[in-house]
Design brief:
506 residues, mainly beta, 3 helices, 35 strands, 35% strand
């Protein structure tokens, strides 16, 4: 009788333990992709195979955003940060076209605070109308680092104004107001800016279309691509001598270093690829793809930030993703769909000593071809030929960052194809044709591949060598941001809404 009673307690206890093990949470998602490597492969488990907004099945909450939301969410310390526009104002004081960063409560999606930034004037081709804040945030502790729609790098207090207006920056009222208006009063739901660095004013950069950067944080420093690009007529680079990659002191926002690669004249459209990082032969390197289609490796900045002249980043190697493409007078190939330079709109991914990069003709102005390339991250000098391992052709253009997991690479292209290839050899295993073109990147988590399209369809596929479509769901609007997983929840951003999706439990 005693043994029977013992089993009556042990069996439910064992069942509870199995449930806990099967729904392991990897924690917060503090920046775009895995720290440094930028690989969008998550250790989260227990994520849903499918969901239904109409019935609420596996839906934790849904929050309206603006009308155009291109950013990817970040989850930190009970808060969710997502960029959007101001077409659905959270505060009636903020009227008209603005860039907005929303800080939401992770539990229910309610508003904690928001950063509201007026458009850069003139805004067309510098700060595209209604595009909002496109950059994802990077969070460390209580600090949020992000690039605004105006190309300003700002450090924010994750708690907003709830714990007072921290300095040294105290001009939030001026920042929120258009240049000809009086400064606004700072409200409790406004952001608390710690410091601000205006990239254009301090470095001479001419941002094009929109500022986009996922800030890379390493030690005391922030690594930032500048969005330097074409003029309004798409004829030339107005700031050919401006840097493409800069480094700021994370405590003060002071400019510490910048590249000296003379990339400017060879930028075909703009500089939208965010930097990555990895350890190669005991040496930490920063990997950066310029607007010239070349991937560069730089030594990290070392030492304690001090008031000194701006340093030049030390280049370790360069890898030309498309060495056969035109290299001189590149802008005469604008609108040429057959022959043009290549550029990189995605982020390089570092995995087990290799880099995985998508590149090809510009989606708006260049040739139709695109590729996924794998090369060795070691070496020095020009490693274009010595470093190459394999090249895999994509269908047509590519804005997506690859995800590497369990010996496989998953990547989407603008034709709407999702590809699965062997990470070691580049051998293709399968492709899946979706409904609509794809600008977002794949998330690999819990044995599944998650991806959304610009035709409103969200797909879940098996993350395996054998193709298996698990589910597809039609949502309210297009998807350009990449899904993320944090604390057992899948976050999906459409142009108009943010979905928090969680497997239901009884």
């Amino acid at each position: 009788m005693g043994k029977r009673l013992l089993w009556q307690f042990l069996i439910p206890a064992l069942f509870c333990c199995l449930l806990i093990v099967s729904t392991v949470s990897a924690g917060d998602h503090l920046q775009w992709g895995q720290k440094g490597s930028r690989n969008m492969a998550s250790a989260e488990t227990g994520l849903p195979d499918s969901f239904d907004p109409a019935t609420g099945r596996n839906i934790k909450w849904v929050v309206p955003l603006g009308t155009e939301s291109y950013a990817t969410p970040v989850v930190a310390r009970g808060k969710v940060l997502i960029g959007t526009n101001n077409e659905r104002p959270r505060d009636p004081r903020h009227k008209g076209d603005r860039g907005v960063l929303l800080c939401l409560d992770e539990k229910d999606g309610s508003l904690c605070w928001q950063l509201v930034v007026p458009k850069r004037i003139p805004m067309l081709y510098r700060d595209w109308p209604k595009s909002g804040i496109c950059s994802p945030a990077t969070v460390e502790g209580e600090k949020v680092y992000i690039v605004t729609n105006r190309g300003e790098v700002v450090c924010l207090d994750l708690n907003g104004q709830a714990n007072g207006n921290d300095g040294p920056y105290r001009d939030e009222g001026r920042l929120m107001s258009p240049q000809d208006d009086e400064p606004m009063n700072v409200a409790k739901t406004d952001a608390d800016v710690i410091w601000l660095f205006d990239v254009a004013a301090k470095t001479g950069v001419h941002q094009h279309d929109a500022a986009h950067c996922s800030i890379l944080l390493h030690g005391d420093f922030l690594y930032i691509n500048t969005s330097n690009g074409l003029n309004d007529k798409h004829e030339t680079i107005p700031a050919p001598d401006a840097p493409s990659l800069i480094v700021l002191d994370k405590a003060t926002g002071r400019l510490v270093a910048q590249d000296d690669e003379k990339i400017g004249p060879k930028i075909f459209h703009s500089t939208w690829s965010s930097p990555a990082m990895g350890n190669v032969d005991g040496r930490t390197l920063v990997f950066f793809c310029g607007g010239d289609g070349v991937c560069y490796a730089f030594d990290t900045v070392k030492g304690t930030p001090a008031a000194e002249a701006v340093r030049k980043l030390n280049r370790v190697w360069r890898f030309d993703c498309d060495p056969a493409a035109p290299k001189e007078n590149v802008h005469k190939y604008i609108r040429n769909r057959k022959e043009s330079p290549s550029n990189v709109k995605s982020t390089p991914v570092f995995h087990e000593g290799r880099l995985y990069v998508t590149y090809g003709g510009d989606i708006w102005w260049g040739k139709n071809q695109a590729w996924l390339k794998c090369f060795n991250a070691s070496g020095s000098g020009d490693i274009t030929h010595s470093g190459q391992i394999w090249t895999y052709p994509l269908e047509q253009h590519c804005c997506s960052t690859p995800a590497v997991h369990d010996g496989l690479v998953f990547v989407a292209d603008c034709s709407g194809l999702v590809h699965c290839v062997d990470a070691e050899t580049g051998k293709p295993y399968w492709t899946h044709k979706t409904k609509g073109d794809i600008w977002a990147s794949t998330l690999v988590a819990d044995g599944k591949v998650y991806i959304g399209t610009r035709r409103r369809y969200f797909y879940v596929l098996a993350a395996s060598r054998d193709k298996k479509l698990i589910s597809s769901t039609k949502l309210d609007s297009s998807m350009c941001g990449t899904p993320v997983a944090a604390n057992g929840v899948l976050y999906i951003t459409t142009l108009k809404k943010l979905y928090a999706v969680k497997t239901s439990t009884k």
